[in-house]
Design goal:
With 207 residues, the chain is mainly alpha-helical. The protein contains nine helices and no strands.
């Protein structure tokens, strides 16, 4: 990931296409962090190529959205074939599939919406499970589209804001740290004075 992100930074003019392509690959369960790509694209929009803010956001959103489609169709077309093969079936965690299916049965599309906000491969597994359960693709597109827009917008613009106001935030953090240190120091002095006072009073009461 570090090498890929360095390459994208060096080719900032075409960064939106690289982010879009990498996000599609993430939908195929390759070890690519979707959240890291979103955050990096937002940071680049705030610092390196601010003129491409809208373009980066749109391409990243579409990359994430179409990536979910790939996971869905992998679950719908590929996983059933794997389960039929006694050797390849060992690669599929059947207990995990059953657990996710129970969540779908109990909470319905809410499982899909909440899952969109969970990183580390969990969301891909949920999308694949939606495909395995043969959820209507139109329904999947609608629900996931809303969830994807919410999660992407939140993460992208939060990272964008933090990157854009980084000097100000660091200055604020520095002031907060100083304030906490002074308060802690004063609190320590008060406690020390109180203990000395109690010790002195105890000694005076028991000459």
């Amino acid at each position: 990931m570090d090498t890929l992100l360095s390459f994208i930074s060096a080719n900032a003019a075409h960064a939106h296409w690289w982010f879009f392509s990498l996000l599609l690959l993430a939908g195929l369960n390759l070890p690519i962090s979707e959240d890291l790509l979103i955050i990096t694209s937002a940071v680049m929009a705030a610092t390196v190529i601010p003129e491409n803010l809208v373009k980066l956001f749109i391409f990243v959103f579409l990359g994430c959205y179409f990536s979910d489609w790939l996971s869905y169709w992998m679950g719908r077309k590929l996983t059933p074939w794997l389960l039929k093969n006694r050797f390849l079936a060992k690669l599929v965690d059947k207990k995990r599939i059953d657990k996710v299916n129970k969540f779908y049965a109990k909470y319905g599309v809410l499982t899909l919406i909440v899952g969109r906000f969970i990183p580390f491969g969990v969301r891909n597994f949920l999308f694949m499970s939606a495909g395995m359960g043969r959820m209507s693709f139109k329904k999947f597109m609608l629900v996931d589209g809303i969830a994807c827009l919410l999660s992407n917008t939140t993460l992208f613009f939060l990272a964008f804001y933090l990157a854009e106001h980084y000097p100000m935030l660091m200055s604020l953090l520095h002031k907060i740290n100083i304030t906490f240190f002074v308060c802690f120091l004063l609190f320590g002095i008060v406690i020390l004075c109180y203990r000395l006072y109690k010790a002195k009073k105890k000694k005076a009461d028991n000459p």
